[in-house]
Every structure is written in structure tokens, then in C-alpha cells.
Fold this protein.
Amino acid sequence: MFFMMLVKQDFLLIFRRKSDILYPLFFYFLVLILFPLGISADSQLLKEIGAGVIWIVSLLATLITLNELFSRDFHDGTMEQFVISGYSLEIFLTTKILTRWLTTALPLVLASPFVGIVFNMPLNAIFVLFISLILGTPIFYFIGAIGSSLTVGLKRGGLLLPSIVMPLYIPTIVFGSSAVHAAVYDSSYNGQLAILGAMLILSVTIAPFAIAASIRTSME
Amino acid sequence: MIKKLTPNVNAQLLSCTRGNKVLYSNVNFTLEPGDAIQIQGPNGCGKTSLLKQFCQIIPTYNGEIFIDDVPVRSVKQEFFSLLLYTGHSPAIKKDLTCFENIQYMGLLDGIFDENLLEENLEHLSLSKSRDTLGSDLSRGQSQKTALSRLFFTKRPVWVLDEPFSGLDLSSISVIKKILAKHIQEKNILLITSHENIEIPGVAFKNLEID
Amino acid sequence: MFLNTATIILFIIGLYWSLVIAPADYQQGDVYRIIFIHVPAAWLSMAVYVIMAVAGTVTLIWRAKIAEIICVQAAPVGLSFTVIALVTGMLWGKPTWGTYWVWDARLTSELILLFLYIGVVGLYKSISDARSAARACSILSIVGVVNIPIIHFSVNWWNTLHQGATVTKLSAPSAHSSMLYPLLFMGCTFFIYFVTILFIRSRSDILKRERGKQWVQEIFNEF
């Protein structure tokens, strides 16, 4: 009951600020359009770089929402209330991250097949793109939340967040985009997807503890 | 394990440093069921930091807090479940209405019954602002929304940072009555203030910080 | 004091040995001697991160002030080792392979390590309270050290996709003993240097933190 109410409150909060949901989506599409316009619309080129480009733009779109992940709760005092509520901070934060992922990243993932078509990907590659993004974007959120929780109390935390979080994103990007790239050229991609899945499980189980510890430290 | 419902709290040799300044050091106090302490001192002397240290939001690097003679570090989550803290600025979500905020606080106290929560709006005359968004509430109304938690919570240890700031006279007397009731039921109260607060039925021990 | 003199002496011996005595490499001539700085710096940059993470774990579990200080003061030193490794790597690369930078696994991993260090040092500098800053950096360094094997594995794997045949050209030369020993010696020297610098930095950090206390005032009054 408690858990359901918590999730309901989280969704309520996110939907009260629709711009939080729409902004990353617009960013995603706008930046993706820039690539063929800025480089070249040659279909062979797009096929070659498509996997990497879509993955990178998905990363950037999630990165811009990370700043806001805990910021409002932290600054209006409700995060403090939850830290000393006697309930598990890890579960609270995980719920928050998951609801944020559902509302902000899932639209991007659902839009990715259309983007795949624009980048001339064959059908099986689009399928792999979808799966890899479903596995990879939550990893971005969980690892990114570690950086977000460390910098939430800082005045210019927004500058520090990407530099903390970028090195940690590299394995996800490497395996994610190479899975799609392999699918485009009909090579095997199952290994990459399996590793991605393993990283997802690892980050969902371990990251919450680091995130909760960082929130408590940021409150001092 | 915390044995009783309302614990004995014993704070010893608490100190706090912010940057290069030592705010306070060697602060000791004890709270038994039915005790109330009022912390007084000028602005910036560390009253809020002391409350936050008590609530373990800021860690106690020197000194120790004992809950029923057990160091608080080993029973932290249990201590938290007995604790109610209201901070200097009301912890209100600007994107939720007044009533939704109260529902959120009810969530923290394990109360999901909407009717029960609705009844509490009347105590501090918040019925008219029931559906006003947090961002549109005045400071006094936000403070009243945050304090309406006092009327339905079952937690015994209340730590309130300047609870009367921004309130009108009738709300102040309502709050004073609920604080008196809290003490009569043998619970614990720790508040801060600028000036001496008198509540009928409550014998305050005063703690001055300079 | 002892450490200072030991460091200086070891450095003199090590540099003389590596620069003068070790024979010129048959393939690269005298240019290769820069590896006597490059390789130990790279070893240390990784070792220091691990030390930092261990100190960080001790800080979080046991709240020991000394562990906090070690964790926080080791970070800038590790950062400078990483920069030295990268710069010497680039200086080595130009005359030997014609290019300053190449996206091979080791250099890319080192570059990522640089960003991990920048994150820790940047975090420390942004938090005003020293103890909270130390705790935050401890968390970050532990997260980093857990991720380093994963990052290393993924970069190696990525490299095999894109490099292929040129790997052998860039791998470390198999070391003859007359080159191996000075290399190991320089490695130890760098480590002693790290310990010395860590002690110096920690000492000044302790003095800064405890400056309100009486024993510190007495030390300053003696001057």
C-alpha cells in the first residue's frame, strides 16, 4: 500500500511538470536531425554511424534530465523528510529513478524504431536497437543518479555531473552501440546484449546503495 | 533495540563546526518522556544545526547521542521511525496541492485514509486552501500545511525548528494546544525559538546557545 | 625527513641508471628512454586510484580521519601521475609511430582514468565542508574502482573491433633485463615519491584542519 502510494505520488509529481517529459524528447529529435544535416545524408554513411549516433544522443538526452532528478526534492526539504522517515531510502530513490525512466526515457526508446528507419537500418537492426536501448537507458539512469546525488547540493553541480558520470557510461555505450552496429552488418550481437543485461542487473542492485549514501552525504 | 515507545534521549558533548567557525561545543542535554526543551539563541548561533545533528541529518563527529542508553548509530532507522522533524522552511512540494502535500505526509506516517486527513484541514483553517498548489500558498499557509502533520502523527519525538514563524495568532494558539497535549501524553519535544515561548501545561527546560 | 632524502637519492640513481647505463634500444634509439618515466607513471596512476578507493572504504566504514585525509590527498597526486603518463605517452608516440595520439586500448583507458580523477578532485573542491567532501569523494572513488575493471574490459573489447592488425606495433616491447631492472627501479622510486608527497600533503592538511587546537598553535609559536 505504501509502495503504491509512493509510486502514485511520483507519477503525479512528474506529470505536473509536463515540460520535464517533453524537453528530452524534443532534444532527442532535434539533435538527431542535425547529424544528417551537419555531416552528410549519404545513406551508406548514415547506416555506418547510425548505431553510435542514436546511442550517443540517447545518452545526452538522459544526461540533461539527470540534473533535475533529485534537485527539486532536495531543495524543498522533502528529501530530508524521507531520509529521516524510518523508511528505506534505497527503495524510495529506486522508485523515483524508475518512474523517471518510465516517463522520460521510455518515450525515447519507443521512438527509436522511427529514428532507425531514418538512419537506413535494416529491420533486424531496428529490433536490436530497441532491445539494447531498453536495457541500456535504465543503466544510464541508475549510474547517472549516483552522480546526480553527489552533486545535488552543490551550487554549480550541473557542471560537475557530466564529468563524474561520463567515464562510468563508457562500457554501456561501447556494448550498446556495437550490438546495433553488428546487427546492421549481420554479425552476431547476442554477446553484447547479454553483457548489457548483466550490467543492468548489476547497476539496479548495487547503485541504489551508493545513491542513498551520496544523498545522505550531500545533506551534511 | 529501543524498548519503550517513547525513549529516553541523552545527548553528550555535541559540537559542530561550519567551515572555520565553531558553532557550539560541549552541548549536553537529556530528554525523558514528558520533557520539553526550548533551544534559544541569536540568529546564526547554530540552533538549526543542533536540531539537525539531533536528527542525525548532520553527523555527530564528536560527542554521542544515546537512545535508551544505546548509541543512536546502532538503532538509526528505528530512531527515525519515532522522529518527526519540521525544518525552518516548510517542506512542501510546490507542484502538489495543499491536500496532496498532506497526503504525502500521511504516507510517511502510514496513514492512507483520506477522510482522516481531510478532518485535519480544519484545525489550522486550511479547508479553503485545500486545492491550492504549493507554489501559490503564502508562507504562513505553507507552514500550516507542514504543521498539520502534528495532528495525525503517532510519532513520539517531535523536533520543530521555529514552528511559530509566519503563523497568525489563532494558529499559534492551536499549535500550542497540540504541543501541550503531546507533552501531557508523555512524549518528547525539542523546539527552537528566538524568544521565550510559554505554553500552559508545559514546563520547558531552556538551553541557551551563544 | 628521511623520506625526502630517500626520494631524492633514489631519483638520482634511477634517472642515471635509466638514462645513461641502460643500452639504447635497437629499434628506437635513445627516444625509448622516456618509457622510464611513462610506464612507472602509468603504473602509479592506477595504483594510486586503488589506494584512494581503499582509503575511501576505510573512511566510510570506520570513519577514521586519517583514512579521509589519505583518500583526499592521494587524488591530486594520482591525477598528476595520469597527466604525466599521458603526456609522456604522446611525446613517445610522435617520434616512434608518427602520431601524437592513437586510439588504442591502453591510452584510451588512461584517458578515461584521467576523467575519473578529475571527477574526484572536482568533487572535493566543490564541497565546502572538509569532512563531507571526504565522504563524497570516498563514495565516488569506490564507485570508480568497481567500474575500472568493467571499463578496461569494454575498452579492450572495443579496441579489438577497430584496431586489428596494428595492435602489435603498439604493444610494449619485450624487455631485456638490462632495461627491465631500471624500469622496476624507477617504478619503486615513483612509489616512494608518491608516499613522500602524500605525507607532506597529509601533514599540511592535518595542520589546516586542526588549526584551532592548542598543539598546532604551539608548533607555530616555536617559529
